[in-house]
Amino acid sequence: MDGRLRVVIAEDAAIMREGLTQTLTRRGLDVVAAVADAQALRLAVEEHRPDVAIIDVRMPPSHTDEGMRAAREIHRDLPGVAVLVFSQYIETRSATELFAEQAGGVGYLLKDRVADVGEFVEAVSRVARGGTVLDPEVVRHLLGAARRADALSTLTPREREVLALIAQGHSNAAIAELLTITPGVVEKHVAAIFAKLGLAPSTGVNRRVVAALRYLGS
């Protein structure tokens, strides 16, 4: 062992993967594997036990959150391997869960906001040595998600019941029939839900849809 940080890269875009490999190698890091999907990432981490894995959020086959799920599994099952999520996407719920499980040795940076190679390499090193790195934009989204979750917690059981039915696509009239209450009572519940979630009337904004999305996202 020569003391260099050992890195596994998981990035499905070939040019980005090669670019990261060359950049880190030139800066003195040892890229022991560079793979294109989450399954190959897990195999590479198991084989090489690197100091840090740099992981994109969206990878094959579905290009949704395979990378983020793999990052959480690695962080949970192999605490000696740090993880740095490096993506152009912010997956708020998964990121919250990732940072909640163990604060150290984890980071989340956005590709289009990294302007200095030296700072990026320093961030990789910091995470590998047990530190935490968070892009301010990611922090903003995480705080927003926390505030939305707090708002949902203020709903009464009946209001949550009404919101759940809204999320299922029911109209006020249908909700009234399902809950055996009057349409006027449903309207009051809906108004209270909108107020607690901070959804003021706004042209072009469907408050029912936004409220449903927040409920489903919780």
Automatic annotation (TrEMBL):
Claim: Electron transport is one of the keywords in the record: no
Keyword Phosphoprotein set for record: yes
Keywords: DNA-binding, Phosphoprotein, Transcription, Transcription regulation
Residue span, Response regulatory domain: 6-126
Origin: domain of life: Bacteria
Sites bearing 4-aspartylphosphate, chain numbering: D56
HTH luxR-type domain span: 148-218
Coiled coil: none
Entry-linked InterPro entries: CheY-like_superfamily (IPR011006), NreC/VraR/RcsB-like_REC (IPR058245), Sig_transdc_resp-reg_C-effctor (IPR016032), Sig_transdc_resp-reg_receiver (IPR001789), Tscrpt_reg_LuxR_C (IPR000792), WalR-like (IPR039420)
PROSITE patterns, A to Z: HTH_LUXR_2 (PS50043), RESPONSE_REGULATORY (PS50110)
Xref: PANTHER family: TRANSCRIPTIONAL REGULATORY PROTEIN NARL-RELATED (PTHR43214:SF24), TWO-COMPONENT RESPONSE REGULATOR (PTHR43214)
Name of the molecule in the record: Response regulator
